[in-house]
Design brief:
Length: about 240
């Protein structure tokens, strides 16, 4: 059975869990920084040439950015677990087990989103942008610009791929339902299309390669919400019958 906690206890518990997440983020960033050379070499292979720097500050800036992305990836399951621990008192036993499954799913979807953007979208965008020079410029690509361009493109996709798990969680809480998501389908498709057109080269194939996975994610989210909502309705009906 769920148990109630005083407001002060909730605030103290929330503060403690936020501190845990921040501590893990900082420690993860330090660990990633120690191995940042390996991260750099792994991610720089799409550049096609040795990247330039404009000063010593660029080296630190690049290494901090790469370490931060690695730290975020490591911290996501920890943050999800802390959220789960925070809401556990309000959940039934079955709901606790279901919510616990969100943690690996959040991590895996984030990594999958980053991988999709890095291996599919980023090379396509990088070649297109460089092709715009058309031999009119002498290209000197700095490492800072290269990794900023990469992270600005890849990181949002890692977060967008979390959509099904977020919808599942909100559906369990009763905040979202399939009817509401279905009504939002047209404006959601429009937003996804705008995102796709904005971040991809101006050709039809590139737009399709990005918008299709995003639409599939949205439809998966509706299906998940429909399943969860149906179970909630059944459980409510059973509970009402038992009370009668």
């Amino acid at each position: 059975m769920s148990k109630e906690m005083p407001i002060l206890e909730h605030v103290t518990d929330l503060r403690r869990r936020i501190l845990i997440v921040l501590s893990v983020l900082v420690v993860s960033m330090v660990i990633c920084f120690l191995f940042v050379d390996h991260i750099y070499l792994a991610l720089a292979n799409h550049s096609g040439e040795k990247l330039a720097i404009l000063g010593p500050g660029d080296i630190l800036s690049i290494y901090v950015k790469l370490s931060a992305v690695g730290a975020i990836a490591i911290t996501i399951p920890v943050a999800a677990y802390q959220v789960w621990r925070f809401v556990v008192p309000a959940l039934e036993e079955r709901e606790r087990k279901v919510a616990l499954m969100y943690i690996p799913a959040l991590f895996l979807l984030f990594i999958f989103g980053l991988s999709f953007a890095y291996f599919v979208l980023f090379p396509m965008m990088y070649k297109f942008v460089l092709g715009l020079s058309n031999g009119n410029f002498e290209l000197v690509i700095t490492a800072n610009d290269y990794f900023t361009f990469m992270l600005n493109l890849c990181l949002p996709f890692g977060l967008l791929f979390e959509l099904p798990v977020v919808v599942l969680f909100l559906s369990h809480l009763g905040i979202l339902n399939p009817h509401r998501l279905a009504k939002m389908r047209k404006p959601a498709y429009l937003v996804l299309a705008i995102i796709s057109i904005t971040i991809t080269p101006p050709d039809f194939l590139s737009d399709i390669m990005v918008i299709v996975p995003l639409i599939v994610l949205y439809e998966i989210s509706i299906t998940i919400s429909r399943f969860v909502h149906g179970k909630r309705v059944q459980e409510t009906a059973v509970s009402s019958e038992n009370m009668i």
